Amino acid sequence: MEQLRKEILEIDNKIAELIAQRIDVAKKIGIYKKNHNLPILNKEQEAKVLENISFYFDDAVKKQCQNIFIKIMSVCKMVQR
Q1: Which of 37, 46, 56, 68 has the highest Cβ tally under 10 A?
Q2: Domains in the chain: how many in total?
Q3: Under 8 Å CB-to-CB from 40, ≥6 apart: which residues?
Q4: Which among 17, 81, 73 has a CA at the least distance from the CA of 48?
Q5: Which sign does the torsion angle of CA 23, 28, 31, 32 carry?
């Protein structure tokens, strides 16, 4: 059990690192959007993200995992403002 918990902790750390990287890139996108007078919200891009990640998850958890990505995208939009 300890080994499995250690594995989960390592995975959690990787997820957090990747989210932080995504936020950094989102900030750069926000700067670009401001400089080019583009809106923060891009529904087409968000739909593409959700479609892309859907292939990683079984139907039993797909909607919940999409909700996680919706929240991540919400944070990224927040840092773009």
Answers
A1: 46
A2: 1
A3: 30, 33, 77, 80, 81
A4: 73
A5: negative
Convert the pLDDT of each residue in 6-17 to its tens digit: 999 999 999 999
Judge contact between 13 and 19, C-beta under 8 A.
Answer: no
> What pLDDT score does 39 carry?
96
The answer to whether 54 and 66 are in contact (CB under 8 A) is yes
What pTM does this model have? 0.90
- Encoding tokens for residue 23? 């936020």
Q: What is d(CA 77, CA 55) in angstroms, rounded to the nearest whole number? A: 24
Q: Domain range spanning residue 29? A: 2-80
